[in-house]
Specification:
226 residues, 7-stranded mixed beta sheet, binds guanosine-5'-triphosphate, binds magnesium ion, Spore Coat Polysaccharide Biosynthesis Protein SpsA, Chain A, alpha/beta
Length: 226
């Protein structure tokens, strides 16, 4: 018999998130009560107890030592879900918003993206410089590719399993969200943005470096021009 309840896969790239990962997994579980789901943590060779804690919390743990994008691609490709969700491990993505992302796919969209900058969204975690950079990249992508995004470098997103292959993802680092945003327009996917409130990283060190990763994002835009 075919199971009609969709399986949800939550894919969480994590690097040295021992102070957060247990709470992230617990929050996901309490927000998805009554749903079928799996939680996949893709560890980036953490030197702390991230892996042990994720295992103890009964997440599926995978390993990748290349970068955030590479970890996400690996997790998404091995996920079994009908709906795949990318989520950060630092408690900045609130698990209670998962249901909104899932609804976006259930009503027929291919990709449902959290947006911090549409009405109802917000970020408690972004510096003025990063906000300006994000705005510039959104404008660039909207102008070049004819998109209508309000946010871009944000990793809280849901995907319908059937379009994953179409995206042909390859960005290994923090260019991954930009690559997804651009390819979604180029491949004419049905994209919905929903408001999201990004919380401050709960504990631990940020991994993104504004200038290094700003360049990575610009390079991703240039690479996808043709
Ligand atoms: N597997 C893996 N995960 C990573 C890597 N770099 C970052 N991450 C994870 O990717 C997510 C996003 O990284 P963050 O450091 O939170 O980036 P950010 O949200 O832009 O930065 P903050 O605002 O300071 O939190 C977090 O869950 C990280 O643990 C990596 O190289 N490998
Ligand atoms: Mg973060």
């Amino acid at each position: 018999m075919v199971n009609a309840t969709p399986l949800i896969s939550i894919v969480i790239p994590a690097l040295n998130e021992e102070k957060n990962i247990g709470n992230v997994i617990a929050d996901v579980r309490s927000s998805l009560v009554g749903r079928r789901y799996e939680i996949i943590v893709v560890d980036g060779n953490s030197s702390d107890s991230t892996v042990g804690i994720a295992e103890r919390c009964r997440a599926i743990v995978m390993h990748d030592n290349v970068g955030k994008g590479s970890a996400l691609i690996k997790g998404l490709r091995s996920a079994h879900g009908d709906i795949l969700i990318s989520m950060d491990a630092d408690l900045s993505h609130e698990a209670k918003e998962l249901n909104l992302l899932i609804d976006g796919i259930n009503i027929g969209y291919d990709v449902c993206m959290g947006s911090r900058f549409m009405s109802g969204g917000n970020s408690e975690d972004i510096s003025l410089l990063r906000k300006a950079g994000n705005k510039f990249f959104v404008l660039l992508v909207n102008t070049i590719f004819g998109a209508n995004y309000s946010d871009m470098c944000y990793g809280y997103r849901a995907f319908s399993r059937r379009i994953l292959k179409k995206l042909e993802l390859s960005e290994t680092g923090f260019g991954i969200e930009t690559e997804i945003s651009i390819k979604a327009v180029k491949k004419n996917l049905k994209v919905l943005e929903v408001p999201s409130i990004e919380k401050r990283r709960a504990a631990g060190e940020p991994k993104l470096r504004t200038f290094r990763d700003g360049w990575v994002i610009l390079r991703t835009i240039i690479k996808n021009l043709c």
